[in-house]
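Continuing the batch. This is chain 6 of the set; chains 1 through 5 are on the previous pages. Same settings as before, nothing changed between runs. Recording input and output for traceability.
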Amino acid sequence: MKLHENQPLFAQLLNFAANTLNIRPEFIEKDYWITCALQRMSQNVNAEKVVFKGGTSLSKAYRITNRFSEDIDIAVIDADSFSGNQLKTFIKRLAKDMSADLNELVVPNVTSKGSRFYKAIYQYPNLVGLTSSAMKAGQILIEVNTYANPYPYIHKEISSFLTEYLINIGRIDLIEQYNLKHFSINVLDKRRTIVEKLVSLFRFSFEADTIKSLSSKIRHFYDLYYLINDDECSNYIQSADFRNDFQELFIHDQQQFSEPDGWCTKTANDSPLFKDFSGIWLKLSPNYRKELTPLAFSEIPNETLIAEKFMEILKVLLI
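Output for chain 6:
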């Protein structure tokens, strides 16, 4: 992708696409740079050894959710097959390729570059110059994780909103000229994403300050709502496989993480989410609307619907 090299045309198309797609231009710009990073990942010699996952994958690859995120969450397949030095070199090279044309912004307590985990914020030129309170202006976050177990995964096609706009107006010539074509990458199965987000919420519910901890994961509730409403995911949740997968990942994360305190000895039934979800959601819901509204490009589900769908999952897990 090289449309950004022609800044006048890039800025013009951002605004044209925003008007046509009814999506704010700062979102279309951020989407461009996220797509650009993913395209570079797809061109990496080790592209088949990594998987795109997390909330951003739900909107970019599956088009299930209608929200934006600056996070690009990548998991390494069979990380234990690498030596320590091989893994560190692998992660460093991947992140370098993905962040070409971007400037790193070192942020204390956020930036992390170990042998098994990479997390860094990068800045792009931010031509539009607008942002919302919940969006970091001109920033994306690249995270490469070797602790996950990213299975199953599938190949999905990825493209930017600008590509969609150019197709709509018949400007295939610009797509070709600026290398804006669709491309394919490994993406975590959406059913696995359900389990990952649930186990994350359960683990964070055991923090001393449950409300503060779960507030930091408030986007999970939004994502889960849309996943539950997906027919394939809904059928999965009603299956024995879902309960087995949840329990397996719960145990896996207890082996991988020592925090919060006492986490390794807990069961799902011990979670405050089971014991008092209604009370917890009453305190979380104001933050849900505050954070998700600026990130969404369509009306967000109301708090009651979010709670109802989450309680459906809790009932299944209690069976």
